[in-house]
Design a protein that fits this description.
Residues 49-59, 253-263 have a biased composition (Basic and acidic residues). This protein is α/β, with parallel strands linked by helices. 52% of the residues lie in helices and 7% in strands. The protein has 30 helices and 10 strands. Helix 28 (504-516) links the parallel strand 7 (492-498) and strand 8 (520-524). The structure holds guanosine-5'-triphosphate.
Length: 574
């Protein structure tokens, strides 16, 4: 029968020499001492086995054909070989140890330690041939296998995924590569962790320290750049936003800027004041023209026609005097003849202008008075405060120093409103507590205006016409105290008249003229009223100068009064 063959491995040549042994010869006694001595060194013999086993996972074709088939113990030495290199050559055992890493992956590096003790115990009995191979095996296989192991490049991508979920994602990546090596289904996933575990295990050993770092280093290195890439992206996104975001700040500025120029945004400046007045008087004009047209459609100019026309003019608030002037003028030139609506409106415009011409005067200020005092009176709501603001704007725009006095001490809103106008026109405002003596305030304001060298002092007043006696007493007192500082003060007494009040405006002018000595009018709210004709009636009756007309609430909506333009506008003559 076949006898035992003693195998002799020559280093590097991979040759086997077989020597036949006599089976009948007595076996030599076992040298236990020698075996014990071999145990510690046995760990070094493993490298040779690693050569055989390592090629299996990585390259199965590599292993030498003669050795594997003949040596049945090969399967056993495999684990033994792993144990030995674990101490000296960590890379070898790290890659091969299969069972140990399977358990380790979950707890991470710690499980790598247990496999070592088990391996160390087993190698002892098997290694007789290993002692001489320690050095060679350790030198040759370890360096070659470690760098050659494609496992290193694989973990590289793994760390990228790990960056987010940490080490776990690496396993799924490594797993697919190893399952091919190991046909078993269950371990397919498990093998992945072993690859990591071995890498960590060798580190504790001194020599593998060099190998381990390359595996770990790539991971953090790659992860960091990824984080950097991710980090800049979110930062880059917000950066562009802040640029438009400042949009938020600019909006606030725009709003603030518009708050001041509210004066400018008026649509009025685009249109002439006459256009605005004409539009404002359109209701009055349309009504008047329509009524006139109805009178002269089918009839010749006779007494009945003239009477109907007179009624129409009176209903338009032009007043009896003005109505008679118009009918008399028309009858003088066109009596008994056919008369068109256009002819009637032309004659009306001409007569209205005649009435208004002597009242359409510009406001003259005697600046020899320091200041020229303007007392503004009128019924509540007729536009006193607003007119004061508009007028102050005109005067300051003309370079005059203006001071305002909040003489309407009965209404807090009136005081605040005047302060606003003071801010808009950059005019100082003299005000006192609510309910204070209006005359006292007017006196103080006059003194302060003198001291300040103001050119004009405009004093606002209350207009509580419902308490006529008290109002009259207050206005008289104001005029009296102002006269103490300047006998000619107030130099101008303006009354604001609300055009929308109709015939009642005639009575208002009568009252304030007698009490406060009104010597000028400002017709307000001529925009959008159908009763603009009252201005003609007031002018005809009181013959007071009309300095301005108000055609809106904005600062520029105060226009010098023009008789011809007003007459044409109300008569509907282009
Ligand atoms: N449409 C239009 N409104 C005007 C005009 N003048 C003034 N108003 C408005 O009329 C209202 C009353 O104006 P004020 O200036 O407060 O009148 P006031 O006489 O001072 O009233 P009191 O402070 O109560 O005495 C305000 O809403 C003004 O904006 C104008 O010419 N046209």
């Amino acid at each position: 029968m076949a006898g035992f063959f003693k195998k002799i491995f020559s280093f590097g040549k991979k040759e086997v020499v077989e020597e036949r042994i006599d089976e009948t010869a007595p076996l030599p006694p076992i040298k236990w001492d020698a075996l014990e001595a071999l145990k510690p060194a046995a760990g070094q013999a493993v490298p040779e086995f690693l050569k055989r086993e390592e090629p299996r996972p990585e390259a199965e074709a590599a292993p030498p054909p003669p050795v594997e088939p003949e040596a049945p113990p090969a399967p056993q030495p495999a684990p033994i070989e792993e144990a030995k290199p674990a101490q000296i050559i960590p890379p070898g055992p790290d890659i091969q140890p299969e069972p140990a890493p399977v358990e380790e992956p979950k707890p991470e590096p710690t499980p790598t330690i247990p496999p070592e003790p088990e391996i160390q115990t087993e190698p002892a009995p098997v290694e007789e041939l290993q002692p001489p191979k320690f050095e060679t095996a350790a030198e040759e296989p370890a360096p070659e296998e470690i760098p050659a192991a494609p496992v290193i490049p694989e973990p590289v991508p793994a760390p990228e995924l790990q960056e987010i979920p940490e080490p776990e994602p690496q396993r799924p990546e490594i797993a697919p590569s190893q399952p091919e090596k190991r046909p078993e289904p269950a371990p397919v996933e498990m093998p992945a962790p072993p690859a990591e575990a071995p890498s960590t295990a060798p580190e504790p050993a001194a020599p593998p320290a060099e190998i381990a770092p390359p595996i770990r280093q790539p991971a953090p290195v790659e992860t960091q750049p990824i984080f950097d890439e991710i980090a800049p992206e979110p930062q880059a996104v917000p950066q562009p936003e802040p640029k438009p975001a400042p949009g938020k700040v600019t909006v606030t500025k725009k709003v603030e800027q518009k708050a001041e120029p509210q004066k400018a945004p008026e649509p009025a400046p685009k249109r002439s004041w006459f256009q605005r007045m004409k539009e404002g008087l359109a209701r009055s004009s349309r009504e008047l023209s329509g009524n006139i047209a109805g009178v002269f459609t089918k009839r010749k100019l006779d007494e009945d026609t003239l009477q109907d026309l007179e009624d129409v003019l009176i209903r338009a608030d032009l007043g009896m005097e003005t109505a008679l002037r118009i009918t008399d003028s028309l009858a003088a030139s066109r009596y008994g003849k056919d008369v068109s609506e256009t002819e009637v409106r032309a004659i009306m415009a001409a007569e209205v202008e005649k009435v208004l011409t002597h009242v359409a005067l510009p406001l003259e200020l005697d600046l020899s008075h320091k200041p020229h005092v303007i007392l503004v009176v009128g019924v509540n709501g007729t536009g006193k405060t607003t007119t004061i603001g508009k007028l102050a704007a005109k005067l300051t725009d003309g370079g005059l120093a203006v001071m305002l006095a909040a003489g309407d001490t009965f209404r807090a809103a009136a005081i605040e409103q005047l302060k606003i106008w003071g801010e808009r026109t950059k005019s100082p405002v003299i005000a006192s507590k609510l309910g204070a003596d209006a005359a006292g305030l007017a006196y103080d304001a006059f003194e302060q205006a003198k001291q300040a060298g103001s050119d004009v002092l405009i004093i606002d007043t209350a207009g509580r016409l419902q308490n006529k006696a008290e109002l009259m007493a207050e206005l008289e007192k104001i005029v009296r105290v102002l006269g103490k500082l300047d006998p000619e003060a107030p130099h101008t007494v303006l009354q604001t008249v609300d055009a929308t009040t109709g015939q009642n405006a005639l009575n208002q002018v009568e009252i304030f003229r007698n009490v406060a000595g009104v010597n000028g009018l400002v017709m307000t709210k001529l925009d959008g009223t159908a009763r603009g004709g009252i201005l003609v009636a007031i002018a005809a009756k009181h013959k007071l100068p009309v300095y301005f007309i108000g055609v809106g609430e904005q600062v520029d909506d105060l226009e010098p009064f023009s008789a011809s333009e007003f007459a044409k506008a109300i008569a509907g003559v282009a």
